[in-house]
User: Fold this.
Amino acid sequence: MNAEELNRTARMLVTDHKGLLAMDESNPTCNKRFARLGIPQTVEARRDYRELIVTTPSLGEYISGAILCDETIRQTKKDGTPFVQALTEVGIITGIKVDTGAKDMAGHPGEMVTEGLDGLRDRLREFSQMGAHFSKWRAVIAVNDRLPSRGCIEANAQALARYAALCQERGMVPVIEPEVLMDGDHTLQRCCDVTEEVLRTVFDQLYRQSVNLQGMILKPNMVLPGLMCPTQESVDEVADATVNCLLRAVPAAVPGIAFLSGGQSGELASARLNAMNLRFKSRMPWELAFSFSRAIQQPALEIWLGQGTNATAAQSALLQRARCNKAARRGEYCTAMEIDS
Ligand code: 13P
Assistant:
């Protein structure tokens, strides 16, 4: 493992106020989103959609890295150019999702543990030969009055750390994603407590597994009240709770934190990221960026609807969200940016 190389790649992923675009939905998740909009759930439709994304003009001005899934990294544009090459040509670094999904956890009703460690070393070698420079692994943590259990937090944290160590061994930057879910009626304070406990456990495991913190990116949830919680805090309150939680739990050696969006609207995700960067500008030791899937892609998908004639309008919508999030990293996002589009 070349520590300097890892650190350079990690810093490039969060440089220049850019962020990551997660376009690594598994086939079942992608199909579910297509089905809701009446888009055919076929390999070709998924390829068409991913080509639309990677060929969006000027995307590289706002996006530093794109996370692909196993199917997409093997696909090409209609003219035969591999997606990896198309991304590289516009300055976007290729990443790859390498977990094989969250599965029901034995002995822990209502909880999941992420799988994918078996054979991972060989898969990482293959993906790195295909041009991937970083990768992603997502753990999911459910919250209610009794969850999460210590068993679930510890199993997921250890898997994340073992994944990260294997990744760095291959010279790839691990994007470490422990997601505390928004589902439920828990309060913002409860999300804050759970997120802090999860992050402390993850960093404890990263230390035990000899992971180089300067060669990784953390991809956490924002600290939010549950979707069904009657009290929904303001943008500034969410920003303060989130950054204070991260300041308590994330070591300064980590070069960047790139949030998942988790089901927030595109506008809210941008507004909250903006408030964090604005209110804590000089007080954060890491870059505070984004690694959104739905909060960047959803408007574009709703315009595209599987129709080639809608592709240009869909690309504009995608670029608009990418632009808003780059502005949010500078603390320069405002709702007028939405109206102007
Ligand atoms: P969302 O931004 O839609 O939460 O997706 C992020 C992601 O990569 C989930 O693994």
Notes: Residues 22, 138, 177, 260-262, 292-295 surround 1,3-dihydroxyacetonephosphate (CB under 6 Å). The first helix runs from residue 3 to 13.
